Amino acid sequence: MKIQFVDLKAQYNSIKDEIDNAINNVISETAFIKGKYVEKFENEFAEKYNVKNCIGVANGTDAIYIVLKMLGIGSGDEVLTTALSWISTSETITQAGAKPVFVDIDEYFHLDMNKLCEKITTKTKAIIPVHLYGQPCDMETLTEQLAFCGFQQEENGIYIHKNSGQKIYIIEDCAQAHFAEFKEKKVGTFGVASTFSFYPGKNLGAYGDAGAIITNDDGLAEKCRMYANHGALKKHNHLIEGINSRLDGLQAAVLNVKLKYIDEWNRKRLQNALMYNELLKGLPNIKTPKIRENVSHIFHIYCIVVERRDELKNYLSENGIETQIHYPTMLPFMPAYKYLNHNYEDFPRAYAIQDKILSLPMYPELSNEDIMFIVNVITKF
Q1: Residue 326 and which of 29, 260, 351, 362 are 20 to 30 A apart at CA?
Q2: How many CA atoms lie within 13 A of 365 on its CB side?
Q3: Model confidence over 254-313: pLDDT tens digits?
Q4: pTM of the prediction?
Q5: Does domain 11-259 have CATH number 3.40.190.10?
Q6: pLDDT value at position 185?
Q7: Which CATH number, 3.30.565.10, 3.30.1330.10, 3.90.1150.10, 3.10.520.10, labels domain 262-380?
């Protein structure tokens, strides 16, 4: 028996006719760049999030970079983010000209909100919480901690220090958390802007690179749209220098089809995760993922913490089960950030799990029999 980490073919087969028709329509109409399919996705994604603006871009990495640039964040600024994420979260900070400041994680694998105050300086311009693995960060505690540091929310996702007037923006990285909710409010609606990846393996995945930005700030939305389109809102009218980062018609058409199914797929992922939790309960030296109270976790990733991780990973592979590690090296410990001179004691929680996290197969089409087989192999190990 072989079980893939993610079976994209199974999902395609379940909606094959719709996907094929959508792609054929784009090709027959040569609607490859911009056009009605991109507009349709932007409008429907924004409507489903109940926000005013959605800007389709080439990928989730560009989405973060564009927001940072259009908020004016650059040289001399600092941006706080989590020690545990994909490098897109931090490399875009550097690309914008600012300095990434890493914060250790909490028991849910997220940025530890209780450590924000000790990291905030007069140079801090933004915080990027990452809703990692599909579970919302504790956005309520974020607000409470900023208030403790003297910052009050002036507008959605914008905090002002009551004495100095220093401004801090909240930019949500929702690359792994499409339509997850914190206390019945969708993640992506807490920040001044939020960014998404539609990489093929995501819960809402395209058939290539794709991304988006959402925001209720009309001025920021216009700047982001302009910057992503060579600095122009109209062809040949370049008001600023920008970059080329556009969601293409083929990917938008695929996403238009999949958007109808995302809630159902997210529910099935949660069911699979709860089954994993129940079957793995009580096994020695394994910690199943904790779920916060009052959240909807969409389980982009099902990550366990396990002793002898590498041995287990190899054993599962020998038995036909594909697994992955998200992520084998915490961001502060990567060679790319050696210049920051961090040591393991700076991020004790992140360091403690770095060699123990293992992502098990997770996708909507994963069957109960598949999960029981995986757990049986783990139990034998």
Answers
A1: 260
A2: 14
A3: 999 999 999 999 999 999 999 999 999 989 999 999 999 999 999 999 999 999 999 999
A4: 0.97
A5: no
A6: 97
A7: 3.90.1150.10
